[in-house]
Amino acid sequence: MEFSPVSIYQRVSVDAALYVLRDINRNMTVTQNHITTGMRVEKASDNAVYWSIATTARTDNKAVSAIQDALGMAAATMGTAYTGVQSVIDVVSEIKAKLVAATEDGIDKNKINEEIKQLQEQLRSVSESATFNSDNWVVLTNDATPTQPRQIPASFIRNADGTISIGMLSYHIDNTPVGATTSKDARYLIDDRATGSGEYGVLTSAYFATELGAAQNYVLMTSKNGTTTGQVVISVTSSTTQGQIGQMISVVDAALTQLTTVGSAFGALEKRINLQNDFATKLHDNITAGIGRLVDADMEEESSRLRALQTQQQLGLQSLNIANATYDTVRQLFQNF
Description:
The protein contains six helices and eight strands, in the order H-H-H-E-E-E-E-E-E-H-E-E-H-H. By secondary structure, it is mainly α. The chain folds into two domains: about 10-40 and about 295-335; about 50-295, CATH 1.20.1330.10. It has a two-stranded antiparallel ribbon. Strand 4 (about 150-160) and strand 5 (about 165-170) form a beta hairpin. The mean pLDDT is about 85.
């Protein structure tokens, strides 16, 4: 009698169990990676569209962060400039009070003048000290152009066509004069340029005196490097007349009015910088949140999925053990043939 060959190597149930277990292990690896990295889209192969959007948004967010830093520096510079102007207003007010006191009969004008000189020295000290990160917005030197606006990076803009641009905050410390220069063009505290006569500094401009028709070109102080011929620094002596003191008081009062204008301008710009900085902070946070919604893993969901896959893995191992046991039983039946 002849027996036809019989194959016992048909392991359909074992192969099926292995296939299911491999699929479970693969899903577990993906889920564990999501939990470990915190991201469900880590590379372009995970989701090309989301990865591209998130990558572009990340680069934009770095630019927004740089804008925040620039605004922070600008706010500090503006705050320093405003503080300088406010301090100068206080000192000039003191000089005005001293001049008023000098009109009293029997007052020692020479002693009054000593006090005025000390206050004038304080004016320069305060003005030159109003510097942040080597940037002084209240003292005009040879390196600056009085009619050129100061600009501060304020926003990062990605246009619809993909191009980018930087929005700027511009502050015209001095508007370009129309016709002759006037006292209104004095938007700095001090103008120390060698090419001028101090006309762009409130404390160094003689235009307050000329516009008031004063007998002399009174100034609170002279420019260090400019042409100061004909200018007279405000001071009193025993021979100073009441009329002269009255003219000095008028010049100082006009300077105080212009100082208030300068201080208001700095204060308004500082406020705008702070508002823009608040917006940049919220924009940065929103972009970060948007990136997270695109690529971040939901940790609760991933944790639940991992627990489910671990349960499936245990069941898959049990199924494989059962399939292997069944196969061994069949193999033993045929081992004697």
